Amino acid sequence: MTVARLWRFVDKRALLVTAVCLVVWRLLEQIPVSDVTPAFITTRLYNLSNGPGLFIAIGPNSLPFASLSLAAEGIGPYIEAWILMNIAVAVSVRLGDLLGQPAGRKTVLRWTRFLALVLALGQAYGFTVLYQSSSPPAFGALDWSARLLVCLALTGGTAMMILLADALDDFGLGFGYGAVILYALASLGSEVHRIAGYFASAPSVEALYKPMAVWTAFTLGMTVAGVAALLAVRRIEGTELRVLMSGVLRPPEVAVAVVVFPTLMANSYYANFPTLALWISESWQPYGPNLWLDVGYVLLHGGLVVLFALFFVVVDGRVAPFPSHLRAHVTRLAVIGGLFLAFAVIAVPVANRFLTRAAGQSISISGADVLLVVAVILFALRSVEGYRPVVPFTASPSGLP
Predict the structure, then answer these.
(1) Which residue of 121, 146, 216, 321 sits 20 to 30 Å from the alpha carbon of 244, by its own alpha carbon?
(2) Per-residue exposure over 97-128, b if at least 16 CB sit within 10 Å of its own CB, e if not
(3) Beta-carbon neighbour count of residue 296 at 10 Å?
(4) H helices of 288-392, where?
(5) In angstroms, rounded to a whole number, what is the distance separating the alpha carbons of residues 105 and 172?
(6) Is the peptide bond before 321 cis (omega within 30 degrees of 0)?
(7) Which among 345, 50, 76, 370 is positioned nearest to 200, based on CA atoms?
(8) Main-chain dihedrals φ then ψ at residue 233, nearest 5 degrees
(9) What is the mean pLDDT of residues 371-387?
């Protein structure tokens, strides 16, 4: 579809609402929470003067207080709440029945929003504790009322993001997936800032020529592979089944939450067990000092992605049951899709890391973010065109891609 043809299909008022929502979102990143220490503010502002003018304007320092702003948590807690509610279907027959009915989905939506605010409040508390340990500390000594005020401000930012997502769905170009679109755009924005940061810190643009070429090749390859995988279907006895039955969001998100849990616990108890916590933080990763432990980490992470891909397909089957004669095919496709996700989310970033470093500069890539952005763009383009596929690009009745 050409750009001119796409422009003809777009609802101009919906496009305007979408633009306003995006502007409000970016404005939230300019409003810092209260009680930030002067030393932290001074340090962040000093970093603005470092780097070439072009890249400093779009690099990670271009939004010096974004990590301390009302939008610091963003739409993330809402997406996490959706995933948790999706997991709950596996143990709650009632919840599965509710998701299978239009009126029930509205009830689940209310529960999900409440859970999102609870998660946001809990994460905000951890956020205040974490930033008290930064150098220099972002927060000084906080009594209960000051800490509560910061937590409520951050939670209010998440509530505002949920309202923006609803506005996109009702009046903009959200097509019912406004929250996922904002989540994907946040990942895309972080990627742009991060890449600009490499150029801002490099001694010269020429120094990044080879590693950036390698990174670009991996990114383009992942994009093409993602489009092919998302559009791939298999017709069995007149029924079309998608290859990526589990979608691209849920398995990687849950797998990474499980695999980083030891590191999170180590950081939480660093004061009591500093030696053990430091060893876990340095070793429990794909690029640690112990080769065999690195290999074990990668294999475990990949196995979890495949396992959760299969798990979420089973969960979706409880909400919208598959015909009995297709279950074996569904299971097989779930495993194939999980293997593809494991390759894209784990193997590709690891290979990219080593090859870009060999080219002169290590430049990381997030396979999960690439796949999510590709999924959102595909769905948005098809929705603008008015296309409603028999095999949807979203994975389940939950609306998560």
Answers:
(1) 216
(2) ebbeeeeebeebeeebbebbbebbbebbbebb
(3) 13
(4) 291-319, 327-342, 348-358, 367-384
(5) 21
(6) no
(7) 50
(8) -135, 160
(9) 81
For CA atoms 87, 249, 19, 65, the dihedral sign is positive
The CATH class given to the 205-401 domain equals mainly alpha
For 1-201, which CATH class? mainly alpha
Q: Where are the alpha helices (DSSP H) in 172-290?
A: 178-201, 209-231, 250-259, 261-268, 274-283
Q: Alpha carbon of 52 to those of 49, 61, 65, 364: distances in Å? A: 9, 12, 20, 21
The number of C-alpha atoms within 13 Å of 14 and in the hemisphere containing its C-beta is 19
Q: Which amino acid is at 131?
A: Y
Picking from 138, 132, 398, the residue whose alpha carbon sits closest to that of residue 247 is 398
pLDDT digits (tens, 9 = 90+) for 253-305: 999 999 998 888 887 777 677 888 888 888 888 888 888 999 999 999 999 99
pTM tops 0.90, yes or no:
no
Helix axes 209-231, 367-384, angle to 10 degrees: 50
Please state whether 175 falls in left (phi above 0), alpha (psi between -120 and 50) or beta.
Answer: left
The first and second tokens of residue 376, run together, are: 């959102």
Kindly report, as residue ranges, where domains of CATH 1.10.3370.10 are found in the chain.
Answer: 1-201, 205-401
Phi, psi torsion values for 242, nearest 5 degrees: -80, 150
d(CA 77, CA 283): 28
Q: pLDDT band at residue 392, thresholds of 50, 70 and 90?
A: very low
Give the residue-averaged pLDDT of 349-372.
89
The structure tokens listed for 104 are 């029930």
